[in-house]
């Protein structure tokens, strides 16, 4: 299974915010730090805001910030908020055109595999995946950045 770029970017935004001063950043700084498109990141952040993962603050000194403690945000929650389709095989999705759907065992196998996948993601928090503060700050160029974005 491969997640979309939106889910990948959402995790990157949250990693940045987790280690950023005051857990806040701007789309421009985050896009620059991750070397990704500002335009795409803007779309991702809007969706993250609608999902309650971040909030945006307008005006001078504003930006994007975490609204919850990183230990309460699971990777599974992030993926579910950013992805629309987890049907790894057609018979798990809403449209079923497969001739053997319902009479073969693939649906059960992939359904159990997806459950196990999310069990792992639901156990891992943002705090878990962003625990290397110093390494992440260095990789994202946050070491010398001021607390104002």
Cα separation of the termini: 36 Å
- CATH superfamily caption: Winged helix-like DNA-binding domain superfamily/Winged helix DNA-binding domain
Helix/strand structural class: mainly alpha
CATH fold-level label? Arc Repressor Mutant, subunit A
- State the helix count: 7
What is the global morphology?
Answer: elongated
Q: According to CATH, what is the class?
A: Mainly Alpha
Low-confidence stretches: none
- Helical content, roughly? 40-55%
Instruction: Give me the strand/helix succession.
Output: HEHHEEHHHH
The Rg value, from CA coordinates, equals 18 Å
What is the makeup of the main sheet? 3 strands, antiparallel
How many domains would you count in the coordinates? 1
Mean pLDDT: 86
Task: State the CATH architecture.
Answer: Orthogonal Bundle
Report on the structure:
The chain is mainly alpha-helical. The protein has a single domain (5-139), classed as Arc Repressor Mutant, subunit A (Orthogonal Bundle), CATH 1.10.10. Helices cover 49% and strands 7% of the residues. It contains seven helices and three strands, in the order αβααββαααα. The protein has helices at residues 5-19, 27-34, 38-50, 75-82, 106-123, 126-129, 133-139; strands at 24-25, 54-57, 63-66. A hairpin with a 5-residue loop joins strand 2 and strand 3 (63-66). Helix 2 (27-34) packs across helix 3 (38-50). The longest helix is centred in the C-terminal third of the chain and has 18 residues, at 106-123. It is elongated.
Layout of secondary structure:
Blueprint: H1 5-19, E1 24-25, H2 27-34, H3 38-50, E2 54-57, E3 63-66, H4 75-82, H5 106-123, H6 126-129, H7 133-139
Antiparallel strand pairs: 1-3, 2-3
């Amino acid at each position: 299974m491969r997640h979309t770029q939106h889910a990948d970017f959402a995790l990157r935004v949250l990693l940045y915010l987790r280690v950023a001063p005051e857990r806040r950043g701007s789309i421009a700084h985050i896009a620059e730090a991750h070397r990704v498109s500002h335009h795409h990141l803007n779309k991702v952040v809007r969706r993250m805001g609608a999902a309650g993962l971040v909030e945006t603050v307008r005006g001078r000194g504003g930006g994007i910030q975490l609204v919850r403690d990183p230990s309460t945000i699971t990777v599974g929650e992030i993926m579910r908020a950013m992805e629309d389709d987890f049907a790894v095989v057609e018979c798990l999705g809403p449209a079923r055109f497969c001739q053997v759907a319902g009479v073969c065992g693939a649906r059960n196998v992939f359904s159990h595999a997806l459950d196990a996948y999310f069990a792992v993601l639901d156990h891992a928090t943002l705090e878990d995946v962003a625990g290397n503060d110093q390494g992440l700050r260095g990789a994202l160029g946050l070491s010398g950045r001021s607390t104002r974005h």
